[in-house]
Give the backbone structure.
Amino acid sequence: MADKWFESVAEAKRRAEKRLPPSVANALRAGQEAGATLDDNLAAWNELQLAPHVAGASGERDLTTTVMGQSISLPVIISPTGVQAVHPDGEVAVARAAAARGTAMGLSSFGSMPIEDVVAANPQTFFQVYWCGSRDQLQQRLDRAKRAGAVGLIVTLDWSFNHSRDWGSPHIPEQLDFKEAFKLAPEALRRPRWLATWLKTKQIPALEVPNMALPGEPPPTFFGAYGEWMGTPPPSWEDIAWLREQWDGPFMVKGIMRLDDAKRAVDVGATTISVSNHGGNNLDSTPASIRALPVIAEALGDQVELVLDSGVRRGSDVVKAVALGARAVMIGRAYLWGLAANGQAGVENVLDVFRNGIDSTMRALGHSSLADLSPDDVIVPDGFVRRLGDER
């Protein structure tokens, strides 16, 4: 409906925060510790300038590309995020929206919807895993993803144990029982539209993670799965190489910020690398991911497919990332705000905002396809790039 349409991710955020209980909104908004990385993710884009042309532009723009073997209609894909209690339809709504707009869906193993339902909604679904549990348990989860029809695997390596926030962390219960529901009731009553959406479904926000369930066992709670992950020793590159051997399709290593790590990812057989700092929710004081992209792209851009996430809010951000070496970007908070604001239609709206922004930026630059973009389109100021893990 026209009155629900929004023209920017910023407006989606405003509407989502007006609709969501404060603790849920805070969980989406916040970064780690002081939020320095979160802030830099946003500020860095504004340091990059564009060099437009004024005549000779094509009347048509081709925004299509391929990521992990999937043809998509624009260089924006859905990043996997954990339990999506902002809306009852969760990842299924997001998957449908992505399919409707011709792009791919990343599903978190900590998501709230079964992979079978998500793949049914969008056959272009990548399944995401953490190094969590034993090799046998990981193998069982990968086997389930294969049977469900996942077309690629995303291995996230950039999530640390740090979870402190200077402004306080929202309370997330282990289980939403009567006691917890009573405790959270004042927040929910302050957001009657959000509450009504859930009441219509006759269910409560799911705090279980069905894709972490092992055969014959009930799904663990989010914190049960989180505890298992925290209790699992961090993987070695040999472990990641083993995981690569278990998956015979496209394989993304997510969370790379250093060139030396990127080279190791290529060595173990990654087909795609996500240059990412986990949206500012990992190690605070890590630079913005766009600052790390140029060095990795220059060294490895002809050896591995690169995508970028963290802090992407506008179509012009996407164009800057592609010009500097990314095949596409992954979005997280942006689509969650759309989901909270207006369900599936809100996610479609966010993707349309990106499409329109990419198209208008391409037009101003005088390019007719993504392949025409190059570093020459972006003015990178001295001192902008971070050469992390670069031997030079």
The chain has 14 helices and twelve strands. The first strand starts at residue 49 and ends at 50. The two ends are 55 Å apart (CA to CA).
